[in-house]
Amino acid sequence: MKYLTLCVALLAAPAAAQEAAQDSVTRDAGLAAWERIYTVTSHPRCTNCHVGARGLPMWQGLGYGPEAVHGMKVQAGESRIGAESIPCAACHVTSAAANTTPHAPPHIDDAWRLPPVELEWFGKTSAEVCTQLRDPERNDGHDIASLVDHLRNSAFVAWGFTPGAGRSAPKTTLDALVHDVTLWGAAGTPCTTD
Ligand code: HEC
Ligand code: HEC
Fold first, then answer.
1. Is any ligand 1 atom within 6 A of the Cβ of residue 47?
2. Please, are residues 48 and 64 in contact by the beta-carbon 8 Å criterion?
């Protein structure tokens, strides 16, 4: 019985400690977490898709130079899936198979497409993306919990961290990103401009 009580106490302790820590996450710790989040949201594996109203996906970080837009005059259009010209799916097929061939069109287990225009991150500063990502009006209606949910479940995000085929990826892990977004949220989503 004593042993059981001890076990319960040991199990409960870390959870309680974690909660206490989250209640007291300082602004500085929140800003530091944000800077780590921005190293991901500014990475080409994310920004090549997170572009604005021009509807031009980018080809950064693939050896074509920093300004390279997608070749072959690809234009996502208002549909964001190229429905008005050549659909993304003509080349980016939907498939859960691993991406192994360098410079082949990447595929994931979801319809390849651009995010809504308000999720534009390409070319934006850390402060700009920070204020955008905490604002449900400009982040597709999300609070922190549902942002975390998206990060954990999106085939796009999973691919960004493990793109395969010799592509570079953010220098952190999806778990670390989820941890940092939770921390940033617990600190009250601070941005340097506040
Ligand atoms: C192939 C294009 C593509 C890539 C690459 C991509 N995203 Fe997205 N992203 C989307 C789309 C599309 C949405 C809109 C939500 C949906 O349809 O799943 C989205 C939405 C989001 C959202 C907002 C949540 C929401 O539901 O709107 C976050 C956060 C996000 N992406 C993070 C990332 C991160 C981090 C990376 C890089 C690791 C990344 N994305 C790479 C296409 C992409
Ligand atoms: C004619 C074929 C073709 C069509 C259509 C096409 N793509 Fe691509 N796409 C490619 C190829 C090939 C690559 C890989 C280029 C490389 O790695 O050198 C690519 C790469 C990309 C990348 C960069 C991925 C990375 O590694 O960061 C994005 C983003 C992208 N495409 C988005 C789109 C979107 C959005 C559409 C539809 C609006 C689309 N593509 C339509 C062939 C196509």
1. no
2. no
